[in-house]
Please model this.
Amino acid sequence: MNAPSPPPEDFRARAKRALGDRNLKIALDRTTGNARTKRAAAVAAWPAFDRAREAAAAIKDHALQNFPYYLERFERNALASGAKVHWARDAKEACAAVIAICREAQAKTVTRSKSMLGEEIGLPHALAEAGLRRVETDLAEHIIQLAGETPSHIIWPAAHRTREDVAKLFAKHHRDHLLLTEIEAMVASARQELRDDFFAAEVGISGANFLVAETGAICTITNEGNAELTTTPPRVHIVTAGIEKIVATTEHALQLTRVLVRSATGADLTQYTTFHCGPKREGDRDGPEEFHIVLVDHGRTQMLEEMPEMLRCVRCGACLNHCVVYTKIGGHAYGGAYPGPMGAALTPVFDGLMETRDLPHACTMNGLCKQVCPVDIPLPTLLRDWRAKSFRRGFEPRALKLALALWAFVASKPALYRAALAVALPLMRRLGNNGWIAKLPFAPGWTNTRDFPSPAKRSFLAQVRSGEKKVGSGEKK
Amino acid sequence: MSARHDIFTALRRLRPQEFSAETIEARARKLARAMQDSLPPLECSDLCENFIARVTAEKVGATVERLAGWPDLPEAVARYAEMHGLEKEVALQPDPRLQTLDWTVFLRADAPLRPDSMLAVGAARGGIAETGSLVFHSGPEAPTLYGFLPLHHIVALEARTIVARFEDYAAAEQGQPQPRNVNFITGASGTTDIEGVLARGAHGPRRLHILIVG
Model:
């Protein structure tokens, strides 16, 4: 008998553990630091970037505004190209559709090119359960497959691993068993290791960055070339995609890559941007004989009703790289397929707000995620909406409710508020030392890891009234 | 009811079609034009020079040589092979512009394309100046894997086929049948998956060399 598994850790416990992980901090600083620098350079070279962001958001909104029209058009054109189209209401149906196609193809080995939708619906697990050998071909996915982990970033799934970690994993698992020190050599080792599998697989599975209504093609964007090597040699290509990937035209898809790629890696365009349309044609020397597209709802129609802006998301990862919470705790602490601000907005849809209500709270509301979003998603607003919903549905602790009610009562009565401040300020100042409070009696969670600033002697309003401070001058008298 | 039925029922309830197909698609064209008012700047007015500047920039990292005409191609390929210490044999994309050239003086050009091919030579359908991208449409004359299997990929690109922007490509292809694969290739294969540091030759070619013809 198996021992009963321990209760799953909650977000706070996971975050706390991540904060104490020195290696994780090094890995996150290196990856997200590089990402921020490169994005900043790309944006600086494009003076009209902000207007382009608006144009990109409008392009996605247009597709979503005419969602059934374009989705039906996509389906019609895909079918005409010889593709088979499958529909899935949820994760279970989506995985079942993929497994059925693999069984039909009598597949033993499947190669997979990184797809966040695949992670979202639990496809790696489903393939394993079905007894299929899964080979992840994206370098980062390969790394975490060796480590037995899940992705911690939507663009860099191995963002939590340092080069030293990767070297050890490769030395242990790769056939050459070399302990490498240079990143170039590690990349070459992975190339060698995975080469034969591209040709051994009966089925190749990819995601899609765009579904193009005008042509029925799906678009993949990668830097390694692993998508094309995953989708071209095997006899069967399966695409799994969320229905919100729909865009009107090839032109719109290409225009979106402009803001997407710069936001993700700082490049003008990924090395490989490929539109795939149907199976092998007459005279083709390569290409799959069967081309399947599994279109997945899994909460999209619900989002269309409750937070349609989130369906604009093009999965660039910029909000993760710029988030003061993500860059400290990494992706695994979030506990879902998608971490960071976009993950905190999405995960409650998939896993339920009750279980995931800590995620929308793990946000400082500094607004950076919205500022860097290439399709201008108001992430802080969406997260605040989740907080409000959680409060309304009674998921928040009673103590918080009482404290907020008390604060609202006092704050809405100016005389009482001023009186309360007049009592509280001197008390708090007595706790301080050199302008900082090392230990707050009612908020030990704050002061355990950092000091709290000592308040001013008197409130801002009191200072203005007494003439100590002039409104608008910004200077002390 | 089927999943398809349920999904479309939900979508139609939430986003009922308010306009005709013509109106919707006119709106789509208008949005594409709106993006064109805020494009990233091109560095030079000459498209070919701009293409070269982009493709040789550090983040794309390809190399370029200009040739007067197609007949100069075999010698240029042989020079490249020699410079990189490669065997003088290439897998040649079955494009008639390449196949009709005289290769015999310089090297063997009948090697099959294999998973471990060292050198393949292809011909692009066109180029995009804005990003330094090569465009390939798959077909009997352009199998997809020529761009992905070799360690060194040499691509011939006719200067006159370079357009400024994605939008120009889309306009030129408007109404044409969609190929099975359209590949935009921008530099050699690379990855930033370890610590965000760029390393070349992940699964596709480690080097991309472009011979601009004309």
